[in-house]
Amino acid sequence: MNLSIYFKEFKYNIQLAYPIILAMLGHTIVGVIDNIMVGKIGPTELAAASLANSFVFIAIAIAVGFSTAITPLVAKSDSENDTEKGRAIFINGLFLCSFVGSLLFLIIFLCKPLLSHMGQPKEVTLLAKPFLDIVALSIIPLAIYQAYKQFADGKSRTKNSMYATIIANITNIVFNYFLIYGVWIFPELGMLGAAYGTLISRIIMLIYMHFAMKEQQIFKPFLRNITIKEINKKMISTITQLGFPSAMMSFFEVALFVSAVWLSGILGTVAQAANQIALSVASMTFMFANGLSVAATIRVGNQMGLKNYSYLKTVAHSILLMALMIYCFFAIAIVLLQSWIPTLFLDTNDTINTALNKDVIYTAGQLLLVAAFFQISDCIQVITLGALRGLQDVNIPMFITFISYWIIGFPLSVYLSNFTDLKATGIWIGLLAGLTAAAIMLYARFQQISNRLIESN
Length: 457
Description:
Layout: H1 4-7, H2 10-39, H3 43-67, H4 70-79, H5 83-111, H6 122-137, H7 139-154, H8 159-181, H9 191-214, H10 220-223, H11 233-267, H12 269-306, H13 309-337, H14 354-390, H15 395-419, H16 424-456
Helix pairs in contact: 2-3, 2-8, 2-9, 2-12, 3-5, 3-6, 3-7, 3-11, 3-12, 4-5, 4-7, 4-12, 5-6, 5-7, 5-11, 6-9, 7-9, 8-9, 11-12, 11-15, 11-16, 12-13, 12-14, 13-14, 13-16, 14-16, 15-16
């Protein structure tokens, strides 16, 4: 195999992907900052935030997954220089994302009573309910923001979302600090302050993205004089046909990780807090693969529009190779630091919770060892999925992800955590199995379709 043809693509891959990675990393850091600041209050509060966020993560996965349909459509229209089609994609995508975000908030609000029937610790559930109300509301501005972001990404203007998330993170840190601890004129709200910080930061992020794009010449034909009359059934149908399966794929994966939160909660506060620490770390490293996945969608979508199928395959493989190199490094780093990383999320000087914190640190370290290896499978599956989105192939991948995560991964997590001595570690071994199955099957699917396109050209 001549790897040089892939290495030549690395520079452009990095130029396209690094703003996306920083934006997604920044978006994830909002949650990680919340976890660190809430964790300093106590492990029970950290477990409560984890439980509440588990509902929100599912909704965000659906909203973000749905919005990803915009990117390949825009990338294809961009390569065809079709401004009218691009405008229709943006306006109808914005409408759909607004509707989906509002609907998801309503569903979470109505489902809040389920918290009391999930076998979670009572003290954790009590703290989680008011936290959930506030964070769930932030889904609406986040979903609308995603329409702007995915459209800008599809036009290969990926720095907009990077700046938006930098501003959001600064906003989140400032308001978290003020509202958690009651600094200056602000009330002391404890863990609820983190929830308000998240809501405010996501509103600011949306406002910035709108006005930043409105001032840029490349976006003016698409954002100028928008009217409700431009919403049409045909484009809504086109976006939905891509968006619904994409949303379901995101749902299947994130719901698997959320099930890990719930399964950990059944095992107790220690397992749940440890799971949240490991999940926070895995979420941060995952953003590198997720950013490269968007780059794969954009570049594959562009080549799809140009009908350059051989180069399309080369581009996808170059991104995959780059990701594997990055994630092997991450795996080594996590293995070496698995005992130290959990201490960042807890107050090790807390004499009241000394024994509890010690148990959480040990358990989280064990989970991080598994996470070090599963993220390699995770990067393969998400980048291949991005390439398949660029090919506008979403229906078969939807079934592949369901089988991988819910026929293979989840049952194994349940069995190993409840019927073996592995407990919390068993949950993550199940996650590893599901992600590995998805990686193998999705890669095989991409090879099948790309080879078929090359042969037919």
